TrEMBL record, chains A, B:
Keyword Oxidoreductase set for record: yes
Source taxon at top rank: Bacteria
SUPFAM superfamilies (alphabetical): FAD-binding/transporter-associated domain-like, FAD-linked oxidases, C-terminal domain
Keyword Flavoprotein: yes
Name this protein carries in UniProt: FAD-binding protein
One GO MF term attached to the UniProt entry: FAD binding
The organism of origin for this protein: Agromyces mariniharenae
The entry's keywords: FAD, Flavoprotein, Oxidoreductase
Domain FAD-binding PCMH-type: 36-215
Cofactor: FAD
Length: 465, 465
């Protein structure tokens, strides 16, 4: 059967089908550090909706699993090759099909990189707000498939709020259109939102109609501070929310993370920043205000930080702001310099951030592992990191992660704020959702993908057919 | 069987069950002007989640249809009594269960009125942004069931964007919890968004976790103008969007509507407003700017209005602003003074507003009916109105509405922007969605409500079981 599928695939799609070992091998990984057990049957580089439909029709007819894949920057193993599967790569579908200034929308193919779209929009004074930290390398299709978040979500929303409509190739190859080109629209159930975050398990996104925003006018003001400990920093972030301030960015780094960042950047890069005279145990908090009232807002944030015990730097010039933000941006490179990094992604209600930080410390001690943590403090989304050596995530790391997920859910939170479930977190899915929701979700999966060929093993354990 | 159901209902729910003829009769109507053919079997005034679960268990066991109903202010016939049905009235479930200032969220029962919630939140400096024009009389449960819009959506979003999570009683009485208390959360499919706008056909909303915003600081500035014709007004609204301005409110009234409003309000109320010297054919456009940069934004809007040929009034004091907004608010009372009003609800991409206004004029002439029209111009949502006498919508009005829906869809729009499908628009649902989407939506309905007892006839034609 596999040989037959491959022959039919090559017959239908010609040179778009690759069996080159290096290309196949590359689809076994994403940016999670996870590596799948085996290579796929083939990779198809789809260049059009027709290509995607041809692949799905053939997969449907032959019962072949299909793994939709974009730029491969996922952090949860949501687009990894598996035995006998076709990896349906849409990175060549990278055209911006339309930008309507009058309607403030763009129609794009799934392979367009987030950063490339925004580079094209900026001269028009427009902006696609979802800004995952990966925006320079991640594609819009993947942003939508995971409902990607980022640094700006508390003020500007997550990906779902910026998607007006989709074109999706269904499991049997039919083309479904969802949503609208209008701001409002309530005809029928919201299939667009159902597709956003569905991680390639319900269909293959081949086109997206995106809601744009006017670029926020005025300069950005950056407020950075160092606090005696992470709880003081968390308290300062809570004080900002309590003062009814909603900055564009509010990012927190704990002591373990900050020490690594400081060591990685070195004294020259840190001169003049609050990290210049870093003491052990100190934590970092950075806010950015934008829009016409940025100066006044940043002043209030600075006061809140100082009242909570912070050593504060306020910067109105862009270059200094960038240097301060570079501290935040260096977190992942600093960790990656010393090993493999498993980035976790829990979220808790903002008020529970101090408790969650305390819990992470306790969990780290219990399992004998350091857990340097970064948080999008403005929206309660934490990225606790595990650094390890070797190809496999060690058992004690998974045990610590398990503790952490359960703690987040017990605090009213969730096991994934923005990365998705993928294969890495599927074992905890039912725990968080509860049995009734889990069964309904499986029912939705079965409705859209009755033979289970779409990204099997992602979100749900693969079932036998 | 009905007698048996009623006896069992009374046995289970006691005095919460009403068979009083006047109470039953009142559930045959909403604010659409539509009246259902018959009264229900009974009305249950549920006071708790337990009550709702008891009703659904009994309905499930006996195959009895259930019509979930809130304040009864719907405009699409989405909550009307039918023969043999139990009307499940949740207006007594009207408690605000929790307001978390730290997490900027509220947990409420479905019967809380939108206006009452905001009155309770205002002293805390917080705000539930969805603001349907009915906010003083409509309930949160209904706002969610229809994904209600309103005047502020282009800037502040629709109801869906303000709902973090729900508790929903399923068709068989089980209690489902969806969503999160966190800003971000991507564990599994987005069942919360699936429930928002589902018009009581997938479950009964018994609790909602709502996302709040800080009250926008500063004064509101109002810019009102009268234009020679509706196309000039539509062009002015497009010029505002093109200038990358996103006012909080941007409302348009066409000539037919404006003439009725002016006659209704009378010269005293209009003194000092742009309607003081209204000429035939003139149209009205009103913008409101808020936030710290309201003055500068309003000045730019005033310039755009003047450039497009408007006679402009800018008002920074609240009392004058209210008088100007009263012109917009008088549209429905002005129409209702002369007959029954069927309020339609199409939406088009903003750039197509002038075309849609032209088409409405042509359609009116073709069918010999005046169609006074109001538009949320900032988001392309139009409310063309039909005024008629008698209980039944006349055939020529439905014919004109049919023309209008098809035109809106042909312009890339939708037949309902914010009111919902209900029973009034179900006949056009498949036309807009297309066959594949329609079938998937019916599949979702069947998954959540396999025996078809939840609000039968709403959104989809009732099928025999």
């Amino acid at each position: 059967m596999p040989t037959d599928v491959l022959a039919r695939l090559q017959d239908a799609l010609g040179a778009s089908v690759t069996t080159d070992a290096a290309v196949l091998d590359a689809t076994r990984e994403d940016k999670s550090g996870w590596r799948s057990a085996s290579a796929p049957l083939a990779v198809v580089h789809a260049a059009s909706v027709d290509d995607v439909q041809a692949v799905m029709r053939l997969a449907h007819a032959t019962g072949t699993p299909v793994v939709p894949r974009g730029a491969g920057t996922g952090l949860a193993g949501g687009a990894l090759a598996s035995t006998g599967a076709i990896v349906l790569d849409v990175t060549r579908m990278d055209r911006i099909l339309e930008v309507s200034e009058a309607d403030e929308l763009a129609v794009v193919e799934p392979g367009v990189l987030n950063g490339d779209l925004n580079a094209a929009l900026a001269p028009l004074g427009l902006w696609f707000a979802p800004d995952p930290a990966s925006r320079a390398i991640s594609s819009i299709g993947g942003n939508i498939a995971t409902n990607a978040g980022g640094l700006l979500c508390a003020k500007y929303g997550v990906t779902r709020e910026a998607v007006l409509g989709l074109a999706v190739v269904l499991a049997d190859g039919r083309l479904l259109r969802t949503g609208h080109r209008t701001v409002k629209g309530v005809t029928g159930y919201d299939l667009t939102s159902l597709m956003v975050g569905s991680e390639g398990t319900l269909g293959v996104i081949v086109e997206a109609t995106l809601r744009l925003r006017p670029l926020t006018p005025g300069d950005v003001v950056t407020v950075a501070a160092v606090f005696p400990d992470v709880e003081a920093a968390a308290a300062a972030s809570a004080a900002v929310t309590a003062a009814r301030i909603r900055p564009a960015v509010l990012e927190l780094i704990d002591a373990a993370g900050l020490a690594r960042v400081a060591a990685h950047l070195g004294p020259v890069a840190l001169a003049g920043t609050p990290l210049e005279s870093l003491a052990p145990g100190e934590a970092f908090l950075l806010a950015q205000s934008d829009g016409g009232t940025a100066d006044a807002e940043a002043a209030r944030i600075g006061e809140a930080f100082a009242s909570a015990g912070g050593r504060v730097t306020v910067s109105t010039d862009a270059a200094t702001g960038e240097r301060l933000l570079a501290i935040r941006r260096s977190m992942h490179p600093a960790l990656a310099a010393s090993g493999q990094v498993l980035i976790e992604d829990v979220a808790v209600p903002r008020s529970r951030l101090p408790e969650m930080f305390r819990a992470i410390e306790v969990i780290g001690r219990r399992h004998g592992v350091e857990i340097p943590t970064l948080a999008h403090a403005g929206d309660g989304n934490l990225h606790p990191n595990f650094v390890f050596t070797g190809d496999e995530v060690p058992a004690h790391v998974w045990a610590a992660a398990d503790d952490m997920f359960r703690t987040a859910v017990a605090l009213g939170g969730t096991l994934t704020g923005e990365h998705g479930v993928g294969i890495l977190k599927r074992r905890w899915l039912a725990d968080e959702l509860g049995e009734d929701s889990f069964e309904l979700q499986r029912g939705i999966k079965a409705l859209f993908d009755p033979t289970g060929i779409l990204n099997p093993g992602v979100m749900f354990e693969a079932s036998a057919h």
